[in-house]
Model the fold of this input.
Amino acid sequence: MTDDKLVIEEGSVCNPHKETCGISKVVFYVSFAIAGLFVLWGAISPGSLNTVFNAILGFTIDSFGWLYLLAVLFFLLFAAGIALSKYGDIKLGKDDDEPEYSDFAWLAMLFTSGMGIGLTFWSIAEPITHYINPPFGEGGTTEAAELGMRYVFFHWGLHAWGIFTLVGLALAYFQFRRGMPGLISSVFYPILGDRIHGPIGNAIDVLAVLATVFGLGTSLGLGALQINSGLSFLFNIPNTGFIQVLIIAFVALLFTGAAVTGIEKGIEFIAKWTVYFALGLMAFMFIFGPTTTIFDILVSTTGSYLNNFFAMSLWTDAIEQKGWGGSWTIFYWAWWIAWGPFVGQFVARISKGRTVRQFVAGALIAPTVFSFVWLAAFGATALNLEIFHGAGIADAVNADLASAVFVTLSNYPIAMVTSIVAIILVIGFFVTSADAGTFVLGMLTSNGSMEPSGKVKGVWGATIAGVAAILLITGGLTALQTASIAAAFPFMFVILAMCYSLLKALKEDHG
Done:
């Protein structure tokens, strides 16, 4: 094995750092066929598809909800432990490699591709929903509001970024330190050896592709729901499935075009401007919203989150069995796992030249802090309006989760302007996430090529859009959640095995 060339399959030689890798026929066609059959099934018989997915959902949550909790906590602790260990100084690349991107550009691309759409969608809808229906105790009380904010921080905090960080770290290490292709299967070379180039490696990569397709489909569906709600709130455009499909089609043209133009031209530009819009909207909320309340909730909820960290991490809702944990925590953990190969691969792609410790600190701590500030700004504002001013935020959430942001903004000056900014922000997150995902899917199905062809990226852009549209048509938000949990389950075991393989490789490197 040389540093930059590997025999990939059937004797072909591939340099993963140049556009010399053709598609991996097995991974591409098997993944595309499965995703295509899903889209076709949903188009022909949406009712039966919804029934099957709901059955899968019920079985997974009832039988393995506890495993999701243990696995995700382990992923977080493992990533943090590697950074704090003697392996933290190992560079993700050659010893003299330097980072390709500035810290700001790196963090902007990392954050916007990671969870931008979800934060915009849930930053108000989730705390208000928990205030009405908390995991335990009585709803509609100040205690329920505090508990709700704590769980919002929990769902969007260290656990989510722990998954992304772990997968990204493993991929970056094998890609840039060992000179292997940008494939999930490459991570398993210390365990499987050359068998990663055969059926086992192909199966691992197919699982990664499918998890990415359905995870992205969920996120894009949420984005379409929120864009439609914003347009309906501002311009009385009907809030219907047909309009949402049109939105998906329009944005698909944008993100597929961005992916085809290349990562430097497309993703970096959109990511930076999306962050500027996000910072502007958040600053507006700090200035015109209940500033003191926002800071109070940010500080107190962070303390409560840290104090109850392990209790929340291992709570299974075993006694009351309200189904709250399955609807919220398990959904989120599965969603983040499904996003693991996509976000991890993309973060790895932009992180060459950083040490293991720098990578973990940047990918784990910085986005978590930003998420907490964002959630406090919007969640505290919405709770303040609902509890002390009777602004009807809870009624809006009950009627349409996606409208919560726009109803909240309508209580402050220049509501039309800030609502339009919010829509632009959702579109920016939408395009950036799907853009990065399309790029990663191209890599995964092109033998790890760092420059997959425009045709391959175009195929996956259309496929993601089709999956998102079918999920919305067949069952709306419930179908989106169900697809994430179903797709993530097998990939959870892949990440568990990834931990052992990475540790084995780091030991060899350090020695």
